[in-house]
Structure formats: C-alpha cells, structure tokens
Amino acid sequence: MKKTMIVLALIAGTSLYGKTVDAYINQLAAEAKQQNSAFQGFSAQRGKDIYFSKHIGKRGKEVSCASCHTDNLRQGGENIFTGKKIKPLSPSVNPKRFTDVKKVKKWLRRNFKDVYKREGTAQEKGDVLLFMRSN
Ligand code: HEC
User: What does the pLDDT read at residue 4?
Assistant: First the structure.
C-alpha cells in the first residue's frame, strides 16, 4: 500500500513538473479574458512585436527584448548592462527553457520593466511566451 502511494506521488510529481508553465499560461489566459472580454487567445504575432519593438527603457537606453536575447532566439545573447552571457531562449536548442515557472515569472517581471518600464499585462506575457516557445 505504502509503495503504491509513493509510486503514485512520483507520477503526479513528474507530470506536474512538465505542466507548470502550461498551467501558468492557462492562468494568464483566464486573467486576460477577465481584463478584456474580447480576448480570443494568445498570438505569437503580437508576441513577436512585443519582443522586437524598441522602447526607452532602463537607464534611458533604447532597448527591446532582442537587445539582450538577440534577433535569433536560437543564439546566445548578452546582458547589455552587465556584459554577462545569456544562453539561448529557444527551447529547441535549450530544453531547460520555460520549464521552471518561478524563473519564467521572475524574468518576465524584471525584463518587462527593463524594456517597458512597467510590468507586462497578462495578455502581453502570454503573447510573448507563445512567441518565444515556438521559436
Ligand atoms: C537587459 C537584458 C535583458 C533584456 C532587455 C531582456 N532580458 Fe530576458 N533575460 C535576461 C537575463 C540576464 C535572463 C536570465 C539569465 C538566463 O536565463 O539565461 C533572462 C531570462 C529571461 C527569461 C527566462 C526564460 C527561462 O525560462 O529560462 C524570459 C522568459 C525572458 N528573459 C524574457 C524576456 C522578454 C520577454 C524580454 C522583453 C520584454 C526580455 N527578456 C528582455 C536579460 C534580458
């Protein structure tokens, strides 16, 4: 009996691990719908605009997400403020990406502030996540 419980807990644990970012995206979709009843789902095209559009961000510098993560998500980038190397964002070359929901939330919050000087809305976060995950 005890053994079965442990096995069941392990199975639940592994499937949760892979699903947390998906669960987060579903949660963002619910929030987006609440904020805008016309919301029809996330769009990788809008996400692409969010990723590439330039804004006067941190330290008065004109930046976009691509400033640090580059135009090609399969390539490594560099933090333009600290010079630290950044591994590629694309899960196709870096399977660790978008597996840790805490990390995803933390960096979306921080990086939206770097570029947009505010937090992203639920819709913006979902759009840009969809774009990044599919590139
Ligand atoms: C000033 C440089 C900089 C800018 C601009 C920037 N990022 Fe980042 N980003 C980082 C760094 C540094 C990390 C953390 C190191 C790492 O994960 O390799 C990171 C990590 C992330 C992660 C975590 C991914 C994961 O699951 O591992 C996401 C998501 C992300 N950035 C999205 C964005 C988006 C969207 C934008 C534009 C709104 C953006 N970043 C702009 C530097 C930047």
Answer: 62
For residue 27, the CA-to-ligand 1 centroid distance in Å is 21
- For residues 22, 46, 84 and 55, what is the CA-based torsion angle, rounded to 10 degrees? -140
101 Cα to the center of ligand 1, angstroms: 13
Residues within a 6 A CB radius of ligand 1: 63, 65, 67-69, 79-81, 86-87, 97-98, 103-104, 107-108, 111-112, 114-115, 128
pTM reported for the whole predicted model: 0.89
For the cut 50, the answer to whether the pLDDT of residue 100 exceeds it is: yes
- Counting from 1 in the atom list of ligand 1, the atom nearest the Cα of 87 is 18
Q: In terms of DSSP bridges, do strands 85-86 and 77-78 run parallel, antiparallel, or are they unpaired? A: antiparallel
Q: How many distinct structural domains can be found in the chain?
A: 1
Of residues 7 and 111, the one with the higher pLDDT is: 111
CA dihedral 122, 128, 134, 135 (to 10 degrees): -170
Range of the domain at 108: 2-133
CATH at residue 93: 1.10.760.10
